[in-house]
Design a protein that fits this description.
heterodimer, A: about 50% helix, B: alpha+beta, four-stranded mixed β-sheet, 12 helices, binds flavin-adenine dinucleotide
């Protein structure tokens, strides 16, 4: 057991932190939000740092790194509430490298790593809620080729992505496919999201698709778990910064002739925020360190982590706004954007209640070593 | 003890219900039931309908043209309006400034201002908070200097709710810097069309401009717009606060929104998820408990036997409930609450909302907006200080 970061990991952290601080100002972010919620240029800058290829093996053109590097990276991006979805690149890199046939890997992994191709997971469907064992979209096979029909909702940057990873039912079983946005039969209607980012409704009508794997459920659950670990890490960064902003404000804002940080009622709230933040950081470590564990163990761990992170995010987000008073609910002041980011992250890849259900149904009646 | 309302009270409720049914425009209740955006005209249309009937100032005494209802009747009226989906009455005129004008204004002022408030013609705003004075309201700096038969006002107010529509604003202004801060404050009514008044809307986190900054630059205000005595404004403001009692809890609206939450949970398929439904159940218990608290206050007011000084508790619990139902509605929709499509929050939008259920469009925005409820009207921390003070001494 060792929770120290290696020198290489620290270097990666520094590189990310520097980019966020120098390259991703709040003004730049605000302009991106106003322009629709995605900036390919910013995404490419992350690609230049190698971040989009973190989970792509070296022989396929990536960095061949693991969950801890993913965690370090997303924590730093979280501090700057970066909206360009690096998590999607991590999912695409790992899923394609882990499940796709060699030819598909050869075609796509390098492009995902270099940022040339933005590939996103398109799995949300109305009525499914957070289920991963089936869906309505369906695939039909014609010789070597496949065609997909169905609607996928709230797909991250769906109208700007180059391709989608799409679960669809093939002969009664869920399989995973890759569909290019430019393919015939594909349409994507984009819109902004509550956190300032972008999503789209993606509609497939007999759209030509490439098979990634026939065991779609395994691949989808793995994809979601990568998403959970990444979201946990990102949330820690967002919360770190949220608390820092709040503390700064409390140490300058005066009411009744004193700084509001002198009120004991508020000091205890800050203590609770810190408690939730450190529990969250711990469970983010846990999630990352379990991401390569055997499936059942990994799934149980991600659910536990997401419950803690969800609870932490809710408390930190709400208290941060509350402790600011009126200024906390304005668009102009930065803290409301952190609040909205945390709200949306709590829902991403399954909300707290959903994961509590997962933990509950997987719970063992024997005491034992949890880790 | 009896939980039921008296037969007379029930008859009163029926009368109100029938009237609201016949007079509340359907397009307005549609917007309210679906949390769609209300325009100035929407709010004022309902205010004028109530005004015409003499019920906009439904808490007013008969001598000022009000219906002279009991506390219970007021409650029943508010409940029927809320359940029917009537827009909330913008309180600044009829609920806030009018009682002050009645209690402390002179006859000329009462005749000049009350009719416009009662009819819903004149839009009022509340000018208390300043950038440096929020919880510590007694520290207001906005200055009014007497020059002959006028005051010259200089300074800034902020967080002025719906001030962009405001025609008049009632302000706490500093008229003296001697003695305790509370003793140098005056209560001044200002025509917002006077030269030197500038209003700048503030965009909130949900994208709407609900509050404003208001600047006063050498604004000339006639001295006969001063309510009561100079430097006594703090006392009048406190009187006003004591008038926002049970309606601060907004339990009637919570009852309506609980039903909307249940409808949404069914549409979104989480009604049958025991884990989710338990959360709704907990909220339902909270709302019933809050309602009982409200009814106890009303009963005490009616009998005059036990005075219950628990306005702080009503504010704390009521605001937390508002935040909770808006949160559960958002969570019910989950990913489908995340698209931010502003047009979809306008009535009559014909576009395709993601997943096809347009009712989900305002859920996240409402949840965001509700953060304000624990901040304004005396933050919940300040309320807890007050409650603690009454308990601990
Ligand atoms: C949407 C909205 C609408 C509003 N509408 C109006 C309006 O129409 N007219 C108007 O005049 N005002 C209005 N307000 C202002 C509102 O009343 C103030 O925001 C509120 O009083 C808090 O003041 P503040 O924002 O300056 O926060 P601050 O007073 O700076 O408070 C910051 C934090 O410190 C806490 N705090 C302060 N003092 C203490 C203490 N002694 N002990 C413990 N904690 C403390 C607060 O609870 C808060 O968490 C509105 C505000 C909002 C958000």
């Amino acid at each position: 057991m060792d929770f120290d970061f290696s020198d290489d990991q620290e270097q990666l952290r520094d590189a990310c932190a520097k980019w966020v601080e120098k390259g991703y100002s709040f003004e730049r972010r605000r302009a991106t939000v106003a322009a629709g919620g995605f900036d390919r240029k910013a995404y490419n800058e992350m690609a230049e740092l190698g971040l989009t290829g973190l989970y792509v093996p070296e022989d396929l053109g990536g960095m061949g790194m693991g969950p801890v590097e993913g965690m370090v990276t997303l924590q730093e991006l979280g501090r700057g509430i970066v909206i360009e979805p690096l998590t999607q690149a991590l999912i695409a890199g790992a899923v394609l490298a882990g499940y796709a046939p060699d030819a598909v890997k050869a075609d796509w992994c390098g492009k995902v790593a270099s940022g040339e191709a933005l590939v996103v997971l398109a799995h949300t469907e109305r009525g499914l809620r957070y289920r991963t064992d089936s869906c309505k979209a369906s695939a039909t096979q014609n010789g070597e080729s496949w065609a997909l029909t169905g609607d996928k909702n709230v797909v991250p940057v769906g109208d700007q992505a180059d391709a989608f990873l799409v679960p669809a039912m093939a002969n009664g079983k869920m399989a995973m496919f890759l569909v290019e946005r430019s393919a015939k039969g594909v349409s994507a209607n984009g819109y902004g999201t509550q956190d300032g980012g972008r999503a789209a409704e993606v509609s497939l009508k007999d759209a030509p698709a490439t098979l990634v794997t026939l065991d779609g459920q395994t691949a989808l659950e793995h994809a979601i778990d990568i998403g959970i670990a990444a979201t946990c890490a990102e949330a820690v960064g967002v919360m770190d910064q949220t608390l820092a902003i709040t503390v700064d404000y409390m140490n300058t804002r005066k009411q009744f002739g004193v700084v509001i940080s002198s009120f004991q009622a508020l000091r205890h709230r800050v203590a609770d925020m810190k408690m939730q933040l450190e529990l969250a950081r711990s469970m983010s470590y846990y999630a990352s360190l379990k991401l390569n564990a055997p499936t059942n163990e990994r799934r149980a761990a991600m659910a536990r982590a997401k419950v803690q992170l969800g609870n932490s995010m809710r408390l930190v987000a709400k208290d941060a706004v509350q402790l600011h008073g009126g200024i906390g609910v304005t668009d102009e002041y930065i803290v409301s954007h952190y609040f909205k980011k945390l709200t949306q992250m709590e829902i991403a890849f399954g909300d707290t209640m959903h994961h509590l259900g997962e933990v509950s149904s997987r719970m063992q009646d024997t005491a034992g070593v949890f880790a | 003890m009896d939980l039921a309302f008296t037969p007379e009270e029930q008859a009163f409720r029926e009368e109100i219900r029938a009237w609201v049914k016949g007079n509340l425009p359907e397009d307005l209740s549609h917007k309210v039931h679906n949390a769609l955006r209300l325009t100035r005209d929407d709010m004022q249309r309902w205010a004028k309908i109530l005004g015409k009937k003499g019920w906009l100032g439904h808490g007013w005494a008969k001598e000022f043209g009000g219906p002279g209802w009991t506390a219970v009747q007021k409650h029943l009226f508010e409940e029927e309006c809320a359940l029917a989906g009537a827009p909330r009455v913008v309180p600044f005129g009829p609920v806030m400034v009018a009682p002050v004008i009645m209690a402390f204004g002179n006859k000329e002022q009462q005749e000049r201002f009350l009719p416009g408030i009662a009819s819903g013609e004149v839009w009022w705003s509340q000018g208390y908070s300043e950038p440096g004075s929020g919880s510590d309201l007694a520290s207001v700096k906005c200055k009014a200097e007497r020059e002959g038969d006028h005051f010259i006002v200089n300074g800034q107010k902020t967080w002025t709710t719906l001030g962009q529509y405001g025609e008049w604003i009632f302000c706490l202004v500093r008229t003296s810097t001697e003695g305790k801060p509370q003793t140098g404050i005056s209560f001044l009514l200002i025509d917002m069309k006077t030269p030197g008044v500038t209003v700048r809307p503030i965009k909130l986190l949900d994208g709407e401009c609900e509050v404003n900054e208001v600047w006063f630059d050498n604004v000339k205000v006639p001295a006969n717009n001063l309510i009561g005595e100079e430097n006594k404004g703090w006392t009048y403001a406190k009187h006003l606060l004591s008038h926002e009692r049970t309606n601060i809890a907004d339990v009637n609206r919570a009852k309506r929104e609980l039903e909307r939450l249940k409808r949404l949970a069914k549409t979104e398929g989480v009604w049958d998820d025991a884990r989710f439904r338990d959360q709704i159940a907990l909220l339902e218990v909270d709302i019933v408990a809050l309602e009982m608290l409200v009814l106890r206050v009303l009963s005490a007011e009616k009998s005059g036997k036990n005075s219950l000084d628990i306005a702080g508790l009503l504010k704390i619990k009521g605001s937390e409930i508002q935040q909770r139902y808006s949160e559960l509605m958002m969570l019910a929709a989950g990913p489908f609450a995340m698209p931010f499509i502003e047009e979809a929050m306008e009535a009559g939008w014909q576009g395709n909302y993601p997943g096809g259920v347009t009712a989900n469009a305002p859920l996240a925005s409402t949840f965001f907006n509700m953060r304000k409820t624990t901040i304004y009207g005396g933050s919940n921390e300040v309320q807890r200080n007050i409650v603690a003070q009454t308990v601990l001494g």
